[in-house]
Amino acid sequence: MRGLIQESVIPDEGLPLDGLAGRAHRGPRGALSWLRANLLTGFGGVLLLVFFGAGLLGPWLEAHQPDTLYPLSVLQAPGGDFPFGTDDLGRDLLSRILSGIRVSLSIGVGSIAVSLAAGAGLGALAGYFGGWLDALVMRVMDVIVAFPAILLAIALMTMLGGSLVNVALAIAIIYVPIFARIMRASVLSVRREQYVEAAESLGAGHARILIRHVIPNSASPILVQISLAISDAILIEAALSYLGLGVNPPTPSLGGLLIEGQGFMTTQPWMVIYPGLALTLGVFGFNLVGDSLRDLLDPRQRRR
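User: That's the sequence. What structure does it adopt?
Assistant: Structure tokens below.
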């Protein structure tokens, strides 16, 4: 029985070999499906590498400080010392975009990390213990989910005030119910597995069962949701900054750069095009990777 518990901790070991790779050997259609999926995964990975690289290496890539004013170069077209041009105050747009990517990544990754810890923890406890705890946790989650995400974010930012920390906190609150529901549903399924019952019969405590058996075997749906949630968090941050409720100026953010360039779309389009492309490619990369993870980890996809 002890061997049953140890072997069941990783019940999916070896299954990815029967997933996308296995489909490559099931005729031309399977090979094309496998190739297409891996091309999209690779493309999404490249986009994320570029996005993260631009954010993390920004301080070394910036030829100018994001907030330095160049009065003689106001609204200068892309080229020369300013590859992406300048804004209406003479600031280097490339440096501001790199700084904005860094802000967006900080908010996206930080907020989702907080919501993951809180939501997955509450969902695991609710699904494992059930009863009044399950009812209490899920009713609180239902109240939060009842509000549209962007409207709840606007309400929270109105109360908290605009700052990087407050934006991350507001987005984290929005995503707690999503992770809680996903983890609870997965734990409810794993909770009835034989290896959990075997661990209980051997006298293992609730904490040990949750940490060693239940949570590791319930994590696959969460891994997919993390990538998709980060992309949504970046979009919400951009929307809040666009509405003037996000990061306070002069700190640049991608949404803030879009609103700054809105009045110059027809005469100086680079002020909107380059921040918009950075935002689009980053979100697209996260979505591609999230979809590929879903195809790889979903057992129903592996059977096709």
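The radius of gyration is 23 Å.
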